[in-house]
């Protein structure tokens, strides 16, 4: 084998090795991105579950308020005014309802 063919093969092998390293790095990046994304989704689902629970409590309070079983000081509007997360949920729910 001539030295130029040997040099070309060696060059091709080096290029192949470099591409393999790039592929490994991309696979690692993909795995990290996937893990981070799954963590974000988990946190969002937890938040959604918490908001659903708050929504159910607010619905119960509204039902009691509507039936006259609650004291006027226990009004749902007061609960919403005092709870930023309840306000945020109500705003988000209004936007979703309007979109549907």
Give a brief description.
The chain is mostly helical and 100 residues long. The chain is 88% helix and 0% strand.
Structural commentary:
- The protein has 3 helices and no strands.
- It has one domain (3-99).
- By secondary structure, it is mostly helical.
- Helix 2 (76-82) crosses helix 3 (84-99).
- The longest helix has 65 residues, at 3-67.
Question: Would you spell out the secondary-structure blueprint of this structure?
Answer:
Elements: H1 3-67, H2 76-82, H3 84-99
Helix pairs in contact: 2-3
The averaged pLDDT comes out at 81
Low-confidence segments: none
How many domains in all?
A: 1
Largest sheet: none
Radius of gyration: 29 Å
Question: How would the global form be characterised?
Answer: rod-shaped
Tally of DSSP helical segments: 3
Provide the structure class. Answer: mainly alpha
- What is the share of helical residues? over 70%
Termini separation: 72 Å
Strand elements, count: 0
Proportion of beta-strand residues: under 5%
User: What pattern of helices and strands is seen along the backbone?
Assistant: HHH
Features:
100 residues, mainly alpha, 3 helices
